[in-house]
Amino acid sequence: MQEDKRALVERLFARHSGTLRSFFQRRAGAQADASALAQEVYLRLLRINDTDAIKNPEAYLFTVAGNLAKEHKVLAWRRGISQDLGDPSLQDQLAILDETGAEIDRECRAARLRQVLQELSPKCRAAVVLQYWHDMSYAEIAARLEISTHMVKKYLAQGLAICRRRMARME
Description:
Layout (H helix, E strand, L loop, with lengths): L1 H27 L2 H16 L10 H25 L6 H32 L2 H11 L5 H8 L3 H22 L1
């Protein structure tokens, strides 16, 4: 009887180990967890007293795996709740999240600024872009746009005021 159980588990392991690891990979997320969970399924199968009662070994295998995946999620959730907020590794993870949030905020602001610039009149937009992106002087902008330096100053003042107002609405 003991040898039959061992043969059944070995057969299941040989046939389904890759599928079982993939099953856990999708649910646990980490390859190391997936391999450990797959091993735990086989250990649980070896603890079964009456293997003759199992009508469909493959279905039973994945039922055990599904239950183990649920247990793993609950344990991971409990570990997450009980983590010490002063833990340096947790602080590092929070810092990465903060940096990611700041990056997303910068990207949103840049997209909004591009949109606001598109709403400016063509010469006003050109003056702002030439001044702030190309670092051109008033005289160079005036020559490029064929306008006076006085108009360059007016366009820049107007463009900056509109950009500030519309960007402030975003916050």
